[in-house]
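Write out the bound-state structure for magnesium ion.
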Amino acid sequence: MSNATKEYNTEIVKISNLFVSKSKIKKMASIIKSGNVVAFPTETVYGLGANALNSNAVNKIFKAKGRPSDNPLIVHISNYDQLDKLTTYIPINAKKLMDKFWPGPLTIILKKTNLVPDETTAKRPSVGIRMPNHKIALALIEQSGCPIAAPSANSFSKPSPTLAKHVAEDLTGKISAIIDGGNCKVGVESTIIDFSDVKRIADKPIILRPGGVTIEAIESIIGNVNLHETVLDPKQKVKNALAPGMKYKHYSPNANVILFESKTISDVVDFKKEISNSKSIGIITLNQDISSFDIDFKEIKAVKSSEILAKEIFKFFREMDEKGIDTIIVDKIPNKDLGISILNRVKKAASKII
Ligand code: TXA
Ligand code: MG
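---
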Protein backbone atom coordinates (compact mmCIF):
# COMPACT_ATOMS: atom_id res chain seq x y z
CA MET A 1 0.00 0.00 0.00
CA SER A 2 1.01 3.64 -0.30
CA ASN A 3 2.69 5.57 2.48
CA ALA A 4 -0.53 7.42 3.42
CA THR A 5 -1.11 7.38 7.15
CA LYS A 6 -3.18 4.50 8.48
CA GLU A 7 -6.30 6.14 9.78
CA TYR A 8 -8.29 2.98 10.36
CA ASN A 9 -7.67 -0.36 11.94
CA THR A 10 -9.23 -2.23 9.03
CA GLU A 11 -11.13 -5.29 10.18
CA ILE A 12 -11.44 -8.25 7.78
CA VAL A 13 -14.57 -10.32 8.38
CA LYS A 14 -15.13 -13.64 6.62
CA ILE A 15 -18.75 -14.33 5.72
CA SER A 16 -19.89 -17.46 3.91
CA ASN A 17 -22.00 -16.86 0.83
CA LEU A 18 -23.83 -20.14 1.47
CA PHE A 19 -24.80 -19.31 5.02
CA VAL A 20 -24.85 -15.52 5.39
CA SER A 21 -24.32 -14.85 9.11
CA LYS A 22 -26.95 -12.39 10.25
CA SER A 23 -24.93 -11.21 13.26
CA LYS A 24 -21.85 -10.46 11.12
CA ILE A 25 -23.97 -8.62 8.54
CA LYS A 26 -25.58 -6.60 11.35
CA LYS A 27 -22.17 -5.58 12.60
CA MET A 28 -21.03 -4.50 9.11
CA ALA A 29 -24.33 -2.69 8.51
CA SER A 30 -23.85 -0.76 11.75
CA ILE A 31 -20.61 0.63 10.28
CA ILE A 32 -22.50 1.77 7.15
CA LYS A 33 -25.24 3.27 9.35
CA SER A 34 -22.65 5.23 11.30
CA GLY A 35 -21.49 6.87 8.05
CA ASN A 36 -18.36 4.81 7.46
CA VAL A 37 -16.97 2.66 4.65
CA VAL A 38 -17.12 -1.13 4.26
CA ALA A 39 -15.74 -3.11 1.29
CA PHE A 40 -18.04 -5.97 0.28
CA PRO A 41 -18.23 -8.66 -2.41
CA THR A 42 -20.59 -8.48 -5.37
CA GLU A 43 -20.91 -10.90 -8.30
CA THR A 44 -18.81 -8.56 -10.49
CA VAL A 45 -15.97 -7.17 -8.34
CA TYR A 46 -15.62 -6.03 -4.71
CA GLY A 47 -17.27 -2.68 -3.97
CA LEU A 48 -16.29 0.09 -1.55
CA GLY A 49 -19.58 0.95 0.11
CA ALA A 50 -21.11 3.80 2.08
CA ASN A 51 -24.60 5.26 2.60
CA ALA A 52 -25.42 6.75 -0.84
CA LEU A 53 -27.66 9.42 0.68
CA ASN A 54 -25.07 10.71 3.17
CA SER A 55 -22.58 13.09 1.57
CA ASN A 56 -20.03 12.82 4.40
CA ALA A 57 -20.01 9.05 4.13
CA VAL A 58 -19.64 9.23 0.35
CA ASN A 59 -16.71 11.64 0.67
CA LYS A 60 -14.89 8.98 2.68
CA ILE A 61 -15.09 6.62 -0.32
CA PHE A 62 -13.42 9.18 -2.58
CA LYS A 63 -10.72 9.80 0.00
CA ALA A 64 -9.94 6.12 0.65
CA LYS A 65 -9.74 5.29 -3.04
CA GLY A 66 -7.95 8.42 -4.17
CA ARG A 67 -10.73 8.86 -6.71
CA PRO A 68 -11.19 12.19 -8.50
CA SER A 69 -14.37 13.82 -7.20
CA ASP A 70 -15.77 14.35 -10.72
CA ASN A 71 -16.28 10.60 -11.16
CA PRO A 72 -19.76 9.52 -9.97
CA LEU A 73 -20.55 6.37 -7.99
CA ILE A 74 -22.97 3.53 -8.71
CA VAL A 75 -25.77 3.20 -6.15
CA HIS A 76 -26.61 -0.37 -5.10
CA ILE A 77 -30.10 -1.37 -3.99
CA SER A 78 -31.60 -4.55 -2.57
CA ASN A 79 -35.27 -4.00 -3.40
CA TYR A 80 -37.41 -2.10 -5.89
CA ASP A 81 -38.96 0.18 -3.23
CA GLN A 82 -35.62 1.96 -2.92
CA LEU A 83 -35.95 3.23 -6.51
CA ASP A 84 -38.49 5.89 -5.49
CA LYS A 85 -35.91 7.66 -3.35
CA LEU A 86 -33.34 7.67 -6.13
CA THR A 87 -35.08 8.40 -9.42
CA THR A 88 -37.93 10.51 -10.76
CA TYR A 89 -38.57 8.59 -13.98
CA ILE A 90 -38.11 5.02 -15.23
CA PRO A 91 -38.56 4.57 -19.01
CA ILE A 92 -40.40 1.41 -20.11
CA ASN A 93 -37.31 -0.20 -21.65
CA ALA A 94 -35.28 0.48 -18.52
CA LYS A 95 -37.98 -1.32 -16.53
CA LYS A 96 -37.80 -4.25 -18.96
CA LEU A 97 -34.05 -4.52 -18.41
CA MET A 98 -34.51 -4.44 -14.62
CA ASP A 99 -37.08 -7.25 -14.86
CA LYS A 100 -34.74 -9.35 -16.98
CA PHE A 101 -31.28 -8.68 -15.52
CA TRP A 102 -31.73 -7.62 -11.88
CA PRO A 103 -30.38 -8.71 -9.57
CA GLY A 104 -27.30 -8.79 -11.81
CA PRO A 105 -24.37 -7.03 -13.45
CA LEU A 106 -26.30 -4.18 -15.09
CA THR A 107 -26.18 -0.53 -14.00
CA ILE A 108 -29.00 1.67 -15.26
CA ILE A 109 -28.52 5.45 -15.34
CA LEU A 110 -31.70 7.43 -14.65
CA LYS A 111 -32.71 10.98 -13.73
CA LYS A 112 -31.96 11.52 -10.03
CA THR A 113 -34.06 12.93 -7.21
CA ASN A 114 -32.93 15.73 -4.89
CA LEU A 115 -32.37 13.16 -2.16
CA VAL A 116 -29.27 11.87 -3.93
CA PRO A 117 -26.41 14.17 -2.92
CA ASP A 118 -24.13 15.87 -5.46
CA GLU A 119 -21.16 14.01 -3.98
CA THR A 120 -22.62 10.64 -5.03
CA THR A 121 -23.29 11.66 -8.63
CA ALA A 122 -20.42 14.16 -9.00
CA LYS A 123 -23.00 16.91 -9.56
CA ARG A 124 -24.68 15.05 -12.41
CA PRO A 125 -28.47 15.21 -12.80
CA SER A 126 -28.48 11.42 -13.18
CA VAL A 127 -27.72 8.44 -10.97
CA GLY A 128 -26.41 4.96 -11.84
CA ILE A 129 -28.36 2.21 -10.06
CA ARG A 130 -27.77 -1.51 -9.79
CA MET A 131 -29.19 -4.44 -7.80
CA PRO A 132 -26.26 -6.83 -7.34
CA ASN A 133 -26.75 -10.59 -7.58
CA HIS A 134 -24.91 -11.51 -4.40
CA LYS A 135 -26.41 -12.67 -1.11
CA ILE A 136 -23.90 -10.84 1.07
CA ALA A 137 -24.25 -7.56 -0.84
CA LEU A 138 -28.05 -7.76 -0.76
CA ALA A 139 -28.10 -8.60 2.96
CA LEU A 140 -25.73 -5.73 3.75
CA ILE A 141 -27.89 -3.19 1.85
CA GLU A 142 -31.09 -4.53 3.38
CA GLN A 143 -29.70 -4.46 6.92
CA SER A 144 -28.16 -0.99 6.46
CA GLY A 145 -31.58 0.35 5.52
CA CYS A 146 -30.16 2.62 2.80
CA PRO A 147 -28.93 2.36 -0.77
CA ILE A 148 -25.15 1.84 -0.83
CA ALA A 149 -22.90 3.84 -3.14
CA ALA A 150 -19.90 1.80 -4.21
CA PRO A 151 -17.15 2.05 -6.77
CA SER A 152 -14.85 -0.92 -7.31
CA ALA A 153 -12.76 -1.38 -4.15
CA ASN A 154 -9.33 -0.85 -5.69
CA SER A 155 -7.02 2.12 -5.39
CA PHE A 156 -7.47 4.59 -8.22
CA SER A 157 -6.05 3.17 -11.50
CA LYS A 158 -5.33 -0.34 -10.10
CA PRO A 159 -7.01 -3.51 -11.43
CA SER A 160 -10.45 -4.11 -9.90
CA PRO A 161 -10.46 -6.52 -6.94
CA THR A 162 -12.03 -9.96 -7.32
CA LEU A 163 -10.77 -11.29 -3.96
CA ALA A 164 -10.83 -9.71 -0.49
CA LYS A 165 -7.04 -9.87 -0.37
CA HIS A 166 -6.89 -7.54 -3.40
CA VAL A 167 -8.95 -5.01 -1.45
CA ALA A 168 -6.69 -5.45 1.57
CA GLU A 169 -3.59 -4.82 -0.59
CA ASP A 170 -4.97 -1.47 -1.73
CA LEU A 171 -7.04 -0.20 1.19
CA THR A 172 -5.81 -1.57 4.53
CA GLY A 173 -5.69 1.31 7.00
CA LYS A 174 -7.95 3.44 4.83
CA ILE A 175 -11.39 1.96 5.54
CA SER A 176 -13.26 0.52 8.53
CA ALA A 177 -13.82 -3.04 7.34
CA ILE A 178 -13.60 -5.56 4.51
CA ILE A 179 -16.09 -8.41 4.14
CA ASP A 180 -14.32 -11.46 2.73
CA GLY A 181 -16.97 -13.35 0.79
CA GLY A 182 -14.65 -15.31 -1.49
CA ASN A 183 -14.17 -14.81 -5.20
CA CYS A 184 -16.42 -12.84 -7.55
CA LYS A 185 -18.27 -15.04 -10.06
CA VAL A 186 -18.35 -12.60 -12.99
CA GLY A 187 -15.00 -10.83 -12.56
CA VAL A 188 -15.58 -7.77 -14.75
CA GLU A 189 -17.73 -4.83 -13.65
CA SER A 190 -21.35 -4.25 -14.55
CA THR A 191 -22.52 -3.10 -17.96
CA ILE A 192 -23.61 0.56 -17.76
CA ILE A 193 -26.57 1.75 -19.84
CA ASP A 194 -27.66 5.40 -19.82
CA PHE A 195 -31.41 6.12 -19.96
CA SER A 196 -31.14 9.61 -18.48
CA ASP A 197 -31.99 11.28 -21.82
CA VAL A 198 -34.63 8.77 -22.87
CA LYS A 199 -38.11 10.34 -22.97
CA ARG A 200 -40.01 8.33 -25.56
CA ILE A 201 -39.94 4.66 -26.50
CA ALA A 202 -38.14 5.57 -29.76
CA ASP A 203 -35.18 7.18 -27.91
CA LYS A 204 -32.28 4.77 -27.70
CA PRO A 205 -30.30 4.39 -24.50
CA ILE A 206 -26.49 4.44 -24.69
CA ILE A 207 -24.14 1.73 -23.46
CA LEU A 208 -21.37 3.61 -21.63
CA ARG A 209 -19.38 0.61 -20.46
CA PRO A 210 -19.66 -3.03 -21.60
CA GLY A 211 -19.59 -5.49 -18.68
CA GLY A 212 -21.18 -8.55 -17.14
CA VAL A 213 -24.40 -8.39 -19.18
CA THR A 214 -23.60 -8.66 -22.89
CA ILE A 215 -24.77 -6.08 -25.42
CA GLU A 216 -26.30 -8.94 -27.40
CA ALA A 217 -28.42 -9.93 -24.40
CA ILE A 218 -29.62 -6.34 -23.87
CA GLU A 219 -30.54 -5.94 -27.54
CA SER A 220 -32.50 -9.19 -27.44
CA ILE A 221 -34.81 -7.52 -24.89
CA ILE A 222 -35.13 -3.89 -26.07
CA GLY A 223 -33.79 -3.85 -29.62
CA ASN A 224 -30.86 -1.78 -30.90
CA VAL A 225 -29.00 0.44 -28.47
CA ASN A 226 -26.33 3.07 -29.11
CA LEU A 227 -22.75 2.37 -28.10
CA HIS A 228 -20.61 5.15 -26.72
CA GLU A 229 -17.45 5.42 -28.82
CA THR A 230 -15.28 4.34 -25.87
CA VAL A 231 -17.00 0.95 -25.62
CA LEU A 232 -15.00 -0.49 -28.51
CA ASP A 233 -12.16 2.02 -28.46
CA PRO A 234 -11.63 2.86 -24.79
CA LYS A 235 -8.46 4.88 -25.38
CA GLN A 236 -10.44 7.50 -27.34
CA LYS A 237 -9.82 10.94 -25.99
CA VAL A 238 -13.28 11.80 -24.80
CA LYS A 239 -13.91 15.51 -24.60
CA ASN A 240 -17.24 15.29 -22.94
CA ALA A 241 -17.11 11.85 -21.41
CA LEU A 242 -20.56 10.61 -20.45
CA ALA A 243 -19.15 8.26 -17.83
CA PRO A 244 -16.33 10.39 -16.45
CA GLY A 245 -14.46 7.24 -15.44
CA MET A 246 -13.72 6.70 -19.13
CA LYS A 247 -11.08 9.36 -19.29
CA TYR A 248 -8.80 7.99 -16.58
CA LYS A 249 -6.07 5.38 -16.80
CA HIS A 250 -7.47 2.18 -15.41
CA TYR A 251 -7.00 -1.44 -14.50
CA SER A 252 -3.22 -1.14 -14.68
CA PRO A 253 -0.85 -3.60 -13.12
CA ASN A 254 2.78 -2.49 -12.69
CA ALA A 255 3.78 -4.81 -15.53
CA ASN A 256 3.65 -3.63 -19.10
CA VAL A 257 0.49 -5.04 -20.73
CA ILE A 258 0.55 -5.99 -24.41
CA LEU A 259 -2.62 -7.08 -26.18
CA PHE A 260 -2.00 -9.40 -29.08
CA GLU A 261 -4.51 -9.15 -31.93
CA SER A 262 -2.31 -9.99 -34.89
CA LYS A 263 -3.15 -12.00 -37.91
CA THR A 264 -0.12 -11.59 -40.17
CA ILE A 265 3.53 -12.69 -39.96
CA SER A 266 4.83 -9.11 -40.05
CA ASP A 267 2.75 -8.32 -36.99
CA VAL A 268 4.41 -11.20 -35.23
CA VAL A 269 7.87 -9.88 -36.13
CA ASP A 270 6.86 -6.53 -34.66
CA PHE A 271 5.66 -8.39 -31.64
CA LYS A 272 8.98 -10.14 -31.10
CA LYS A 273 10.74 -6.81 -31.33
CA GLU A 274 8.36 -5.38 -28.78
CA ILE A 275 9.09 -8.05 -26.19
CA SER A 276 12.83 -8.37 -26.86
CA ASN A 277 13.66 -6.25 -23.79
CA SER A 278 11.33 -8.04 -21.42
CA LYS A 279 13.02 -9.95 -18.62
CA SER A 280 10.00 -12.03 -17.65
CA ILE A 281 6.78 -12.67 -19.53
CA GLY A 282 3.37 -13.85 -18.35
CA ILE A 283 0.72 -14.90 -20.87
CA ILE A 284 -3.02 -15.25 -20.47
CA THR A 285 -4.74 -16.95 -23.36
CA LEU A 286 -7.84 -18.71 -24.62
CA ASN A 287 -5.58 -20.96 -26.68
CA GLN A 288 -5.25 -24.39 -25.08
CA ASP A 289 -2.23 -25.31 -27.22
CA ILE A 290 0.47 -23.81 -25.00
CA SER A 291 3.27 -25.34 -27.09
CA SER A 292 2.27 -23.02 -29.94
CA PHE A 293 3.81 -20.02 -28.12
CA ASP A 294 7.18 -19.61 -29.69
CA ILE A 295 8.51 -17.24 -27.01
CA ASP A 296 10.19 -17.54 -23.66
CA PHE A 297 7.60 -17.11 -20.94
CA LYS A 298 7.72 -17.58 -17.17
CA GLU A 299 4.00 -17.85 -16.47
CA ILE A 300 1.04 -18.89 -18.56
CA LYS A 301 -2.64 -19.21 -17.87
CA ALA A 302 -4.76 -20.94 -20.49
CA VAL A 303 -8.50 -20.54 -19.89
CA LYS A 304 -11.29 -22.33 -21.71
CA SER A 305 -13.94 -19.63 -22.21
CA SER A 306 -14.60 -15.89 -22.17
CA GLU A 307 -16.54 -16.40 -18.94
CA ILE A 308 -13.48 -17.84 -17.22
CA LEU A 309 -11.21 -15.22 -18.77
CA ALA A 310 -13.45 -12.45 -17.38
CA LYS A 311 -13.29 -14.03 -13.95
CA GLU A 312 -9.51 -14.45 -14.02
CA ILE A 313 -8.09 -11.43 -15.84
CA PHE A 314 -7.80 -8.85 -13.03
CA LYS A 315 -6.54 -11.54 -10.65
CA PHE A 316 -3.91 -12.56 -13.21
CA PHE A 317 -2.72 -8.94 -13.48
CA ARG A 318 -2.23 -8.74 -9.72
CA GLU A 319 -0.56 -12.17 -9.52
CA MET A 320 1.96 -11.20 -12.20
CA ASP A 321 2.85 -8.07 -10.21
CA GLU A 322 3.35 -10.18 -7.11
CA LYS A 323 5.71 -12.46 -9.02
CA GLY A 324 7.66 -9.53 -10.43
CA ILE A 325 6.75 -10.30 -14.04
CA ASP A 326 7.54 -7.23 -16.17
CA THR A 327 5.49 -7.98 -19.30
CA ILE A 328 1.97 -9.39 -19.52
CA ILE A 329 0.75 -10.62 -22.88
CA VAL A 330 -2.99 -10.93 -23.31
CA ASP A 331 -3.60 -13.21 -26.26
CA LYS A 332 -6.32 -12.61 -28.84
CA ILE A 333 -9.88 -12.28 -27.48
CA PRO A 334 -12.92 -12.68 -29.77
CA ASN A 335 -14.71 -9.35 -30.13
CA LYS A 336 -18.19 -10.54 -29.14
CA ASP A 337 -20.29 -11.22 -26.05
CA LEU A 338 -18.21 -11.04 -22.85
CA GLY A 339 -15.11 -10.69 -25.05
CA ILE A 340 -16.20 -7.09 -25.79
CA SER A 341 -16.18 -6.29 -22.06
CA ILE A 342 -12.82 -7.94 -21.42
CA LEU A 343 -11.24 -6.21 -24.44
CA ASN A 344 -12.55 -2.86 -23.17
CA ARG A 345 -10.65 -3.37 -19.88
CA VAL A 346 -7.50 -4.81 -21.43
CA LYS A 347 -7.25 -2.01 -24.01
CA LYS A 348 -7.33 0.52 -21.18
CA ALA A 349 -4.55 -1.29 -19.34
CA ALA A 350 -2.43 -2.01 -22.43
CA SER A 351 0.55 0.06 -23.45
CA LYS A 352 0.52 -1.57 -26.86
CA ILE A 353 -1.89 -3.44 -29.12
CA ILE A 354 -0.21 -5.56 -31.77
O1 TXA B 1 -19.83 -3.93 -11.21
C1 TXA B 1 -19.73 -2.75 -10.91
O2 TXA B 1 -20.29 -1.86 -11.55
C2 TXA B 1 -18.87 -2.40 -9.67
C3 TXA B 1 -19.54 -3.05 -8.46
C4 TXA B 1 -18.89 -2.66 -7.16
O3 TXA B 1 -20.91 -2.74 -8.46
N1 TXA B 1 -18.76 -0.99 -9.53
C5 TXA B 1 -17.99 -0.22 -10.36
O4 TXA B 1 -17.92 1.12 -10.01
O5 TXA B 1 -17.39 -0.65 -11.32
P1 TXA B 1 -16.84 2.12 -10.58
O6 TXA B 1 -17.03 3.34 -9.77
O7 TXA B 1 -15.50 1.51 -10.53
O8 TXA B 1 -17.29 2.41 -12.04
C6 TXA B 1 -18.50 3.10 -12.24
C7 TXA B 1 -18.55 3.83 -13.54
C8 TXA B 1 -17.63 5.03 -13.59
O9 TXA B 1 -16.93 5.02 -14.83
C9 TXA B 1 -18.57 6.21 -13.53
O10 TXA B 1 -18.09 7.30 -14.24
C10 TXA B 1 -19.85 5.65 -14.12
O11 TXA B 1 -19.88 4.33 -13.68
N2 TXA B 1 -21.06 6.34 -13.62
C11 TXA B 1 -21.62 6.24 -12.40
N3 TXA B 1 -22.69 7.05 -12.29
C12 TXA B 1 -22.82 7.69 -13.48
C13 TXA B 1 -23.71 8.68 -13.99
N4 TXA B 1 -24.69 9.19 -13.27
N5 TXA B 1 -23.52 9.10 -15.26
C14 TXA B 1 -22.53 8.59 -16.00
N6 TXA B 1 -21.65 7.67 -15.58
C15 TXA B 1 -21.77 7.22 -14.33
MG1 MG C 1 -13.59 0.99 -11.03
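---
The mean pLDDT is 92.
DSSP finds eleven helices and 16 strands in the chain.
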